[in-house]
Amino acid sequence: VSRKLTAQLTQQLASQHTHAIVKERILSDMIFLSEAMVEGMFTPIEKRTPEQIASLHFSDFLVEELRQADALVIGLPNYNFGIPASLKAYIDLITRSNVTFKHTAEGFFGLLPDKPVYIVVTSGSTALYGPKDFISDYMKFILSFIGLNNVTFIDASKVHTDRDGIINNALQTISQIELNMLAM
User: Fold this and answer.
1) Other CB atoms within 10 Å distance of the CB of residue 71
2) Looking at 12-16, 126-130, 156-160, which range is the least confident one?
3) Considering only CA atoms, which of 105, 32, 93 is closest in space to residue 66?
4) In terms of DSSP H, where are the helices of 70-162?
């Protein structure tokens, strides 16, 4: 359901901007942090070993891809009251001290340029914003942590209760979304 709805949302946004370039990243094969990656992330660039540099190549690529994007669309199925492991792996690869966030005396400061983020949340029976929703606050926090504060959730939760109705409501919401490129 999340892939169908994110495809519709991506098409909706792209249709509003004829010169849009859409890049799709399927996270099911996302790599996980390794010891070399973590060591490299906390080693000054000029002191990194060739292994650390190589291990961070994909993370560097993902960060730059995100930095260059005008908008972000995330399909987020709620798996066992949490986000999929592949999305957590992606977050671990793009959440980097002094790259996408920095610590200051006042706390953290996100370093990515803000842009619209659309998150299509799907679930079998867990309601978005309900008492068992542990993903929406986490996603708002982690995105804000790296500088992305303009987050919109599209609710396609509880599809086991009324699959067609829930999907149709989400599609209706998607059809009304307008991406204002001038605000970015």
Assistant:
1) 20
2) 12-16
3) 93
4) 85-94, 136-145
Contacts of 133 (CB under 8 A, 6+ apart): 78, 126, 127, 157
Inter-CA distances, 77 with 17, 139, 168, 173, 182, Å: 27, 12, 17, 17, 30
For residue 37, how many other CB atoms are within 10 A of its CB? 22
pLDDT at 57 over 80: yes
97 within 8 A of 104, measured Cβ to Cβ: no
Nearest to 2 by CA among 172, 161, 157: 157
Nearest to 171 by CA among 131, 120, 117, 124: 120
In eight-state DSSP terms, residue 130 is S
